[in-house]
Design goal:
Number of strands: 2
Shape: globular
Distance between the termini: 31 Å
Order of helices and strands: EEHHHHHHHHHHHHHHH
Helix content: 55-70%
Strand content: under 5%
Radius of gyration: 22 Å
Length: 323
């Protein structure tokens, strides 16, 4: 999306040298192709997953009728028959989160194993895929939070199944997902930003599993991505060049995503006045420059999905910006 963007960076570059990140036309080099193809096999389905989530209407009317008339077996059956296919759809969405969790370490390994600034510059297609993951994650969670039918349907399904099992143990066969799957799905959908939780935990696990990679490599990669997006949002001459109106939102979501991941893996986080790697004030102000229906959701992600916002080392000005 957008044209090639130039960003002044520090570590690994001389002052004034430029790092270019192409959010539109990046194509994989021979070196990237194996990882790129593996990740693309998952990401190629992201739009279909989002379309399924957008189309999810729930079973509110059927559930309400069943609850209001508990002795009406026809209404109970109608609600159950409506909810079960929806639960299967929710399972498909949940299963896709595991696929995202599986490809994220592959992307981080490509970008963080050696010099992350050089990797961002030389592995443009991988960097774009990483950005695509974060864009998807933030969009998925925003759509999920704005659709209360998801949790309502799943709660009704579990309550009804438990009641069926109590009345007749044989009714457990009517379950469309196993009890173990239902428990995991329940934890996933109960969280306000479930996809973000998945990638945050996957990033933390990547750092823990790859002790041969300096943690600074991962945090430098994330802070560099945050700086790239911040400058794209902050400089009017760059923002005005975007032809696709979705590009601004793309940059907003990616920036918020990398800041959250950074805050989860860095010892003192993204908000501390002792850590200049993330320009958190500038990032929040750049985010707020572009009003949209999605802005509050992005600010809420920073408020509620980070680890260190409420630390004593967070400047009052930053807390005020997110108040």
């Amino acid at each position: 999306m957008g044209n090639i963007v130039k960003v002044l960076m520090g570590d690994g570059k001389k002052p004034g040298e430029e790092v270019f990140l192409d959010f539109e036309g990046a194509t994989p080099s021979d070196e990237e192709k194996r990882t790129y193809d593996n990740v693309a096999a998952v990401l190629d389905r992201k739009d279909a997953v989002l379309a399924d989530l957008a189309a999810y209407e729930g079973a509110e009317a059927q559930i309400r009728s069943a609850i209001q008339s508990p002795s009406d077996e026809a209404l109970q059956l109608a609600a159950w028959d409506t909810v079960c296919p929806l639960v299967l759809k929710l399972k498909e969405l949940y299963d896709y989160s595991a696929e995202i969790e599986g490809v994220l370490p592959q992307l981080l390994l490509e970008l963080c194993a050696e010099n992350p600034i050089e990797a961002l510059e030389q592995k443009q297609a991988i960097a774009k895929q990483f950005a695509d993951v974060l864009y998807f994650v933030l969009k998925f969670d925003d759509m999920k939070m704005n659709n209360p039918a998801i949790q309502n349907d799943f709660s009704y399904y579990r309550r009804t199944l438990n009641r069926k099992k109590m009345n007749s143990p044989a009714d457990e066969d009517s379950a469309v997902v196993s009890p173990e799957e239902a428990n995991r799905m329940s934890l996933f959908y109960a969280y306000p930003t479930p996809m973000l939780k998945v990638v945050s935990e996957a990033t933390t696990k990547f750092v823990s599993d790859h002790k041969e990679i300096p943690i600074d490599n991962t945090t430098d990669c994330l802070s560099s991505m945050a700086a790239i997006c911040r400058i794209m949002l902050d400089q009017p001459d760059l923002a005005e060049r975007f032809e696709d109106p979705e590009t601004i939102l793309y940059c907003q979501r990616v920036m918020v995503g990398v800041i959250i991941l950074y805050d989860h893996v860095h010892l003192i986080g993204a908000f501390s006045k002792r850590n200049p790697s993330i320009d958190i004030r500038g990032s929040i102000k750049a985010l707020k420059k572009h009003e949209s229906a999605n802005l509050e959701g992005l600010l809420n992600a920073l408020r509620f999905s980070t680890k260190h916002l409420n630390d004593e080392s967070t400047p009052k000005e930053v807390k005020k910006l997110l108040a």
